[in-house]
Amino acid sequence: MDVEGIKKKPPPNSLSVWPFARRPMERVHVDFFEYKGKHVLLMVDAFSKKIWTQLMNTDTTTSKSLAILYGWFCTESGPPTTLVSDNGPQFTAHDFRDKMKLWNIKHV
């Protein structure tokens, strides 16, 4: 008990911190955002902090995401060892998970 009979709140859970990347393309973080009504794919290399963006002409579908990821991003920079995303539908679809396994990319 604290002053005036009010319980102290327990300390908040500590935030999880990613380990430092040791080389380019070891870990890439990816997400979608909307800008002026358009969907944009954002990718950031954890080592170099290099940022890639790609305007998506249609809704962010799984097949479009895969085509962009492999056809444009991986051919330019090589496939990442680990790809980090949220649990958006583009990243949880079977097509996406299957391609990550095929391309030997660990998806977190």
Automatic annotation (TrEMBL):
It comes from the Eukaryota. Residues 20-108 form the Integrase catalytic domain. Signal peptide: none annotated. Transmembrane segments: none annotated. GO terms for molecular function: nucleic acid binding. It holds the Pfam family rve. GO terms for biological process: DNA integration. InterPro entries: Integrase_cat-core, Retrovirus_Pol_polyprotein, RNaseH-like_sf, RNaseH_sf. This is Integrase catalytic domain-containing protein.
